[in-house]
Specification:
Elements: H1 2-16, H2 23-30, H3 44-70, H4 73-76, H5 81-90, H6 94-103, H7 107-116, H8 123-176, H9 183-233
Helix pairs in contact: 1-2, 3-8, 3-9, 5-6, 5-9, 6-7, 7-8, 7-9, 8-9
Length: about 250
């Protein structure tokens, strides 16, 4: 959906523009989507860099929305789950608690289900499994959002590539004119340099910001879920002198 919006907006700006807009205004709008030489012809490499960054921007927006949806609080620590599990464990309904955890698709449900199945092997096995399962699932969630970090790190480099290429075009025009280049001929290379830098930053800033916010949200919410799970599993802790967990 994001890519379709980009393409539609770019096409309108490049080919039509507002009905009342002057040719200069239409040229300014198309400058953000097309790189042109000093004679007005489309510069293919510069335009390709711009559109690559546009595609990366669309991908980053889609990924950020998808990651935010997949890592919402309800998928990590759903409302009501802790209270229901606490009631079952307090009433010694351990089978019902294990079934509830297995049916829950959330982060806390998964780590509790894995931990409770270790109850026959003792409390140490339960708490060790909890820590391991929590760490593995947290790392898995963090690994997925690293795609946003990669896009945020790479896009400025692609923009810098376009910047260097645009400056090469500008200096080539100066050399070709013997040092007295027409400003119009310089404008194409300089425009390519500035436009690619602009789009590189447009892609990088939101991507890195979204990655940082998602990482903080995942860290804090999974830590909260792990602490809640450890509190619930304390009901499985054996009394002094009992070698196995109470659920055994």
């Amino acid at each position: 959906m994001s890519m379709k919006l980009y393409v539609t907006a770019a096409t309108l700006l490049i080919w039509t523009g507002p009905a009342s807009a002057s040719p200069a205004a239409r040229s300014f709008g198309s400058a953000f989507f097309l790189s042109r030489n000093g004679d007005g012809r489309i510069e293919l490499l510069g335009t390709a860099v711009i559109w690559l960054l546009l595609c990366m921007s669309a991908v980053a927006i889609g990924l950020a929305i998808a990651m935010a949806t997949n890592n919402r609080r309800q998928s990590i620590l759903p409302d009501g789950f802790v209270e229901e599990m606490r009631s079952d464990i307090a009433a010694k309904r351990f089978k019902e608690a294990m079934g509830r955890a297995d049916e829950c698709e959330s982060f806390i449900g998964r780590i509790m289900g894995e931990s409770m199945r270790q109850a026959p092997f003792g409390w140490n096995a339960v708490i060790r499994t909890l820590e391991q399962a929590s760490e593995e699932r947290t790392v898995a969630r963090l690994r997925r959002i690293e795609v946003l970090n990669t896009i945020g790190q790479v896009s400025p480099m692609i923009g810098l590539f376009g910047t260097v290429y645009g400056m090469i075009l500008a200096f080539t025009a100066i050399v070709a004119s013997g040092g007295a280049a027409d400003p119009v001929m310089l404008a194409g290379g300089i425009g390519t340099a500035l436009t690619t830098t602009f789009w590189g930053l447009v892609v990088a800033i939101p991507s890195l910001a979204a990655c940082a916010m998602l990482r903080g949200h995942i860290d804090s919410t999974t830590a909260e879920a792990t602490l809640a799970a450890e509190e619930l599993l304390s009901g499985f802790r054996p009394k002094k002198g009992n070698g196995g967990a109470s659920a055994s």
